[in-house]
Specification:
single chain; 1 helix; 9% helix; binds zinc ion; 17% strand; two-stranded antiparallel sheet; 69 residues; mainly beta
Length: 69
């Protein structure tokens, strides 16, 4: 099964609890961040900001501890 990263704009931006990427940065609604459910547990919605995607930074699932590119 191939990994599918869906690039999408943030339609609903929650100012109370904004999405944060794996490096702890708050996702700017203007940037092309990606979100996908953890490929291991499928429970936690992981966000990656544009910068992390370009740099290929690793992410970590807070739910199961899965780390991936
Ligand atoms: Zn997980
Ligand atoms: Zn980031």
């Amino acid at each position: 099964m191939s990994k599918a990263e869906v690039v999408r704009k943030i339609d609903v931006y929650d100012n109370v609890k904004p999405p944060t990427c794996s490096s702890g940065k708050v996702i700017n609604p203007a940037e092309k961040a990606v979100s996908f459910f953890c490929p291991n547990c499928g429970v936690f919605l992981i966000w990656r900001c544009e910068k992390d995607r370009i740099q290929g930074a690793t992410y970590r699932c807070p739910n199961c501890g899965f780390e991936g590119p």
